[in-house]
Design a protein that fits this description.
It is built from eleven helices and ten strands. It is of the alpha/beta class. The chain has two domains: 1-128, NAD(P)-binding Rossmann-like Domain (Rossmann fold, 3-Layer(aba) Sandwich), CATH 3.40.50; 129-162 and 187-250 and 264-281, UDP-galactose 4-epimerase, domain 1 (Alpha-Beta Complex). Helix 3 (70-79) links the parallel strand 3 (58-61) and strand 4. Helix 7 runs parallel beside helix 11 and helix 8 packs antiparallel against helix 9. The relative contact order is 0.14. Residues 15-221 form the NmrA-like domain.
């Protein structure tokens, strides 16, 4: 058992929730950072930060997209005695042209990484590719259930990574000393086009799911017609842009390096997600 609880912000999310479960399985005391947690943690309510950080020496930061709150949070954590930070960042944070410089996630990740690296604390940065779970728990799930995934990704491929692997790397960095000062780029074992992705999901579920490639302009227009603010629709289109521009197809060795094993495949993810009922209506 660890003497001090490890704080997981975003502790009920796709990665944070899995990190909580994996730490619990190791017998580690965990504090779930969420608006429903006890003590309550809310990124946008700084009055909740101190109680969440009380007695904590290690923190896994799942940042608030679109908000530059990581820097003041890290500073406050240091003042309260935190010694180690593991940061969930994103692929392309240091790649010019990967995304718009003023895009929501880009601003958050670039500033957050700088804050962590210059904090004077022990740190590890985790940069995953697109989550496989975006199709089962995230913003692609409704499209899968509807049988049609419409995105401005062209014929580009992405090396989707399982959130179980992302969480496992974060847990290793929180509980082992060999990961301090390292940046891990995480991907799955192969790059898949969205056509190949929906075929794997169709095979696993028995559903008929197809991918429809749209131009960025048509994609934005469809979202705006559905009631999206134009700026949000453009940010969504921009987030998919790296796939279309073949900037997400490369494979990264972070899972193998950090864990000593290969990453989980998308086919395995789809099979297990289907068995767990992820795509039941």
């Amino acid at each position: 058992m660890t003497e001090h609880p490890i704080l997981i912000t975003g502790g009920t999310g796709k990665v944070g929730g899995r990190a909580v479960a994996q730490l619990g399985a190791k017998g580690v005391t965990v504090r779930v950072g969420s608006r429903s947690g006890d003590p309550r943690f809310d990124w946008t309510d700084r009055s909740t930060w101190d109680a969440a950080l009380d007695g904590v020496k290690k923190v896994f930061i799942v940042p608030q997209d679109g908000e530059q709150l990581t820097r003041p949070f890290v500073q406050r954590a240091k003042e309260l005695g935190v010694e180690r930070i593991v940061l969930l960042s994103g692929r392309g944070a240091d790649v010019p042209g990967y995304a718009k410089e003023d895009g929501i996630a880009g601003r958050t990740h670039v500033d957050g990484e700088d804050a962590v690296r210059n904090s004077g604390l022990e740190w590890t940065v985790v940069r995953p590719a697109w989550f496989a779970q975006n199709f089962s728990e995230g913003f692609f799930r409704d499209s899968v259930l509807g049988g049609e995934l419409r995105l401005p990704a062209g014929d580009g491929a992405a090396s989707f990574v399982d959130a179980e692997d992302i969480a496992a790397v974060a847990v290793a960095a929180l509980t082992e000393d060999t990961h301090v000062g390292k940046t891990y780029e995480l991907s799955g074992p192969s790059a898949l086009t969205l056509g190949e992705v929906v075929d794997l999901i169709s095979d696993a579920t028995g559903r008929s799911v197809r991918y429809v490639s749209l131009s960025p302009e048509d994609f934005v227009a469809e979202l705006v017609a559905e009631g999206w603010p134009t700026a949000d629709a453009e940010d969504y289109a921009d987030s998919v842009g790296p796939i279309r521009r073949d900037m997400d197809s490369h494979l990264s060795d972070g899972v193998q390096t950090a864990l000593g094993r290969p990453p989980r495949s998308f086919a395995l993810f789809a099979k297990e997600a289907a068995a767990a009922g992820a795509w039941r209506d």
